[in-house]
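To whoever picks this up:

The parser on our side crashed when reading a file containing two proteins. I've narrowed it down to the boundary between the first structure block and the second sequence. Both blocks are reproduced below exactly, byte for byte. First block:
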Amino acid sequence: MAPIDKMSVVLVAVFGVTFLGEKLSLPNWLGVCFIAAGAVLVAYRG
């Protein structure tokens, strides 16, 4: 259940950029990528 919960942060960031026109800086995108990678790792290790 934790990977699904963490992917919500990634989805919110992507939806914000796509539909609301938000601008994310490079450090923000790196954070989103790290969260996504961590969720994937937890899903495979769990």
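<<boundary where parser fails>>
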Amino acid sequence: MTSKAIEKQRIEKYARSLLDAARGEGRAPRDVQQLRHAIKFSPEVLETLKRMTDESDLTLLEQVYEDLRNMLDNEDETVTVDVTTAVPMDASLRAEVRKKCAKDFDGAPIFLVEHVEPKILGGIILEARGQRRDASVRAQLMNIRKTLSASFRGGDV
């Protein structure tokens, strides 16, 4: 099977999945128009929608839309910071992170999106506006490993 044929098969599979879902809910014609608009979505928008789906929060979509409109209308300068820790943050750490981030972003209001990821072992990872600061124990151990490997000329520790 050629790559063109495989691609055509994938396209048909996706289209049929969407059609079946829309028919099941009695909204097929409307879904075609919505899909036309969805083609313009950025990966970030699609990722947000996926996360909302995974967390069964799609029922909140209308309220999310209203909040987004209000933020845009009011030119909200709040900086969203993704914070990853190995264990949930307590109020004290949360306040410290907000204070540090506000300083880093010229006093802008900070909105924290917290993630718990045990595999980082400890420490913290901050991501905002395309910047990433990884102060996790896992990253520090990887840096130590690289340094030791380089010390032993081609050796692998």
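After patching the parser it read the second block fine. Residues 79 and 137 are 25 Å apart (CA to CA). The first helix runs from residue 3 to 24.
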